[in-house]
Amino acid sequence: MSTPHEQDEAFVMLPDLALGTLPVADAERVIAIVKSSPRLQAELASLRGTVAALGSATPAAPIDVDRKRAMRERLLARASGSGVDAPVTPTVSPVLRLEPVAAPTAPNAASGSPSRSVPQTAPATRGTAPRILQFLALAASGAFVVSLWQANGIRQERDDARSALKAATVTASQLSDKLAVSDSLVMAMSGPGVKVYEMASSAVRQRGAKMFFDQLTNRWTLITHNLDAAPTGRTYQLWLVTRSSQKISAGTFNTDAGGRAVVQATYALAAADLGAIAITEEPVGGSPQPTGDILIVGTPAR
Amino acid sequence: MDGSIVRRMAGGDESALGALYDRWADAVNALALRIVRDPGEAEEVVESVFWQAWQQASRWSAERGSPGSWLLAMARSRSLDRLRSLRRRRDEQPADASVFDAVPAVGDPCAELEAAERATRVTAALGTLPTEQREVLELAYFEGLSQTEIAERLSLPLGTVKTRARLALRKLRDRLDALREGKA
Questions:
Q1: What are the DSSP calls for A197-237, one per residue?
Q2: Taking CB atoms and an 8 Å limit, are A49 and B116 in contact across chains?
Q3: Out of A57, A64, A183, whose CB is closest to B104?
Q4: Is B31 in contact with B80 (CB distance < 8 Å)?
Q5: Which of A48, B7, B94, B179 is 20 to 30 A from A197, comparing alpha carbons?
Q6: What is the Cα–Cα distance from B131 to B139, expressed in whole angstroms?
């Protein structure tokens, strides 16, 4: 329980806490005092609302229409779980050019010189004209087939190029996501206000975990190692246990084939109030309170 | 309205994600751009914020603030992470206001209007603060600087920075309340 004097001191520092400019030790102290005072809690909530409003005080910056649409499609595709992202940028469809294919000229017809087989006299022309027309028709058909074949080839190239672009775009998007996640993880594990808790198993020596608590952002990051995947129908659940034995669920998770999992949760809890961190095995979906045995546990060093 | 959209998202309604995106993408982009000062980086923040919103929609509750505040808080947090990461990767460049100049004026008119009204209200409230108080507030919020870093940046005693920041935030809160209630 805090004294009125401590509460008055904390009240003065609430804007710093809301803005996130308070040094970690002071922030922990103020948070502990705030918890004991509804008046301070209301003031902090109000100031946090004001801080959030600051985000609106920015010059308008609409995203380019095409990029915005593509981003929307990508998000919806990911949300639908299709696993295939929408293209990042609208691609300009390659213009399908059907190059004029020169129709094979009739033998001698283009030479301009008289021919033995095609005399220039009218009666002779009357007799050979149908054959020339037939030949020209055949030649045109041939040219048409060649054109189709070429067009198909170009279409195939276009489709291949589109597929390659789409694959590259998806890869770039995935890499970008991975980089963002990595950046976020690095910050969550190496920021100035990060506390690290070692967690171990009493049953399996190799099994363990590390919890990183960024006190400035209240972000908890758990990394497990050598924790076998949970049995079918079961899941792992992470618990923050306060010094007053309150058990707060920080989410459920499962591990990969290497026994590794990275779990992040955001919860405001002063480091001084943390009694333990524990992982239990629970039914899929998690439990309101732990029901399984504690598999891995860590306690803060006092 | 935004609250029901987020609840639909929590129920797995993908169209709700689209609706939230349509309403807030530009505002989130504006904040991210203000912090990271790079349009490409800002757009990556926007996408990651909405993806996070989709994944964590079930965790949102009205007691924790409006969906807009929730999105902007995520945008600020991710933008500051990215800004710090960028600072590590390259020498810090001074703020370049020109990045705000050449933005295309296109988008959803309703969402833009709401965003413009919000921005006008907060900007008006900020405008009533003394310059030196507003400066401290902006360095803390948009650049994520600690009190000590702000004191170093402005060559001011730490105590002065604390006093200015505290006065500024409480005044801003009162001013926003007054604007909301139509007293100003």
A1: EEEE-SS-TT-EEEEEEETTTTEEEEEEES-PPPPTTEEEE
A2: no
A3: A64
A4: no
A5: A48
A6: 12
Alpha-carbon distance of A56 to A49, in angstroms, equals 12
Q: Measured between beta carbons, which residues in chain B are less than 8 angstroms from residue A54?
A: 122, 126, 137, 141-142, 172
Residue B65: left if φ>0, alpha if ψ -120 to 50, beta else—which one?
A: left
Report the alpha-carbon distance of residue B21 to residue B18 in Å, rounded.
5
Q: Contact B69/A49, CB-based, under 8 Å?
A: yes
- Buried b / exposed e over A101-116, threshold 16 CB at 10 Å, is eeeeeeeeeeeeeeee
CB count within 10 Å of CB A210 equals 16
- 8 Å CB contact of A65 and B107: yes
Q: 10 Å Cβ neighbour count for B111?
A: 17
Facing residues of A298 across strands? A277
Residue in chain A lying closest to B69 (CA):
A52
Q: Distances in Å between the alpha carbon of B57 and those of A159, A174, B11, B14, B60?
A: 38, 22, 9, 12, 5
- Classified as helix, coil or strand, A294 is strand
**Which chain A residues in 59-88 lie under 8 Å from chain B, judged by CB atoms?**
59-65, 67-68, 71-72, 74-76, 78-80
Q: Which residues of chain A lie closer than 8 angstroms to B85, CB-CB?
A: 183, 186-187
Of A53, A64, A114, nearest to A90 by C-alpha is A64
How far apart CA A134 and CA A29 sit, in angstroms, is: 99
B127 token code pair: 């405008």
What's residue A215's pLDDT? 82
Residue among B15, B119, B29 nearest A64 (CA): B29
Contact assessment for residue B79 and residue B31, using Cβ atoms and an 8 Å cutoff: yes
Greatest Cα pair distance in chain B: 52
**Higher local confidence (pLDDT), A203 or A14:** A14
What's the pLDDT tens digit per position in B107-165? 445 555 666 677 778 888 888 899 999 999 999 998 888 888 899 999 999 999 999 99
ipTM of the complex: 0.77
A106 pLDDT more than 70: no
Distance of CA B95 to the CA centre of its chain: 17
B157 to chain A, closest Cα gap in Å: 15
Comparing A245 with B63, the larger pLDDT belongs to A245
- Give the tens place of pLDDT for each residue, B38-81: 888 899 999 999 999 998 888 888 776 788 888 988 899 889 88
**Spatial distance between the Cα atoms of A194 and B84, rounded to a whole number of angstroms:** 15
Residues 48 through 77 of chain B touching chain A, CB cutoff 8 Å: 48, 50-51, 54, 65, 68-69, 72-73, 75-77
* H or E stretch covering B163: helix B158-180
